[in-house]
# Entry
Amino acid sequence: MVTWRDAVWSAIQRMDSAGAAFTRQQLMQQELAAIVQAVGSTGATPAQTLSRVLQELRDDGVLIFDGQGSYRVAAGVITQTVEEAVATEAWRLQKARVGQGPFRAALLDRWGGRCPLTGISEPALLRASHIVPWNRCETDAERLNPENGLLLSALWDAAFDRGLVTFADDGAAVPLPGLAASSFSVVVASGKDRLRELSDGNRERLRWHRRQWQSNDSITH
# Structure
C-alpha cells in the first residue's frame, strides 16, 4: 500500500526533477489526482492532507520553503526515497551542528569578531550566516567554507536568511520583495548600508543569493 507520504514525495520528484521550485498550488493542479490514485483513497480532504504532508517534509528538512509559497528539495536527495532523504538530512543536521563551531570561529576571525554592518561584537548577538544555505550546499566542504559565510548581527541575519535583504557586489544592502520600505529603513538604521571587504568568494555566492530570491519573486514562491 502506498502511503500519502510516499505518494507526495513521488509527485515532488516528478515536479522537481530539474531542481526547479514549485508551489503548493502547482503541485495540487498537476499531481493531486495522481497522488490520490496512488494512495487509492481520496479521504475527506485530500488538499488538506497534501498540505499536512508538505509541512511534515519541511519539518524533516527535505523540503525548503523559500517564502511566498515556493518549495525546493534539499540538495542531493531528489533521487532518494523519502525515508532515505529524511535520514540524509538528519545526518547533515548533526554534522552541521558539529561543524558550526569551526565555521563560526572562522567567520569571527575573518570579520574581526564584529558584525561589519553594525559593529556589534557581543557574541550572543552575532550569527554565522550561510550565504548559500547549508541544506542547499552540494558538499560538506562548502557548508564549512568561510567564503560561504557572513558574520551578521541577529537582525541583519534574520532579514538575510529569510530572503528579505541581499547584498550587491559592492556590498550595498538591497531590499527584496516581501520587505516593506519602512522595515528596510529600520534594518538599515541599525547599522551601515554596505558590507565592506567582501571577498571574491563572498561575491560569487551573493550572486547566487540574489538570483535565488529575485527569481523566486518572479515565480511567486
